[in-house]
Amino acid sequence: MTENAVLKLRAMRIARSTRPFLARGNRVIRCQRCLLPKQQCLCDTLQPGTARSRFCLVMFDTEPMKPSNTGRLIADILPDTTAFLWSRTDPPQALIDLCASEEYQPMVVFPASYAGSERQVLSAPPSGKPPLFIMLDGTWTEARKMFRKSPYLDALPVISVDLSRVSAYRLRESHAEDQYCTAEVAIALLDLAGDQPAAKSLGAHFSLFRERYLAGKANHQRSVTAKEPENV
């Protein structure tokens, strides 16, 4: 199975690490492609597709390392997805070039309430060029930091998505009911952009990933509990 952009970024991040990254559940034996426990591997279910829309993930430092990351699911379904590690002062030139490309209409995906009054805010992609959705991928605190401290993105419009439902994402705890994981927002964006087949494919992939991730997590917790000595 071909590695996607997030997995390549993960490999690069691991190569430069001076010590192992220990995510929760680090003792679980995982498939190194889908990062699920091997018993829950979903690699044989992957069905990459295409869309007019394109995604660019700007990821906080350790985000590509986390098995719970859902930005990776977008790159599973849409292989032309790009991924970059975030830098406040030294962004990758490839990211700058992509944002300046005449082929796409770039926009930063973020809640409208955080955009300044001078910033153009969109509720749907404009017609014309294919949209390039730039997603800030990290915890909510990290995403806000990236939004505030990425001057090279400040000239781009913001697109804000109102999902108006409680998030299905329970792999990590969110801080509020209106905070959604990266894959959920991407599904809504694909729908808004008219890429319904891709939205459907990503939705099915996310649902299966969530189901198997939580099953593997529950199995691990039962295993750990079974090994604990009884109180005497």
UniProtKB/TrEMBL annotation:
Pfam families: DTW. Coiled coil: none annotated. It comes from the Bacteria. Residues 27-218 form the DTW domain. It is an enzyme of class 2 (transferase). GO terms for molecular function: tRNA-uridine aminocarboxypropyltransferase activity. This is tRNA-uridine aminocarboxypropyltransferase. SMART domains: DTW (SM01144). Keywords: S-adenosyl-L-methionine, Transferase, tRNA processing. Its EC number is 2.5.1.25.
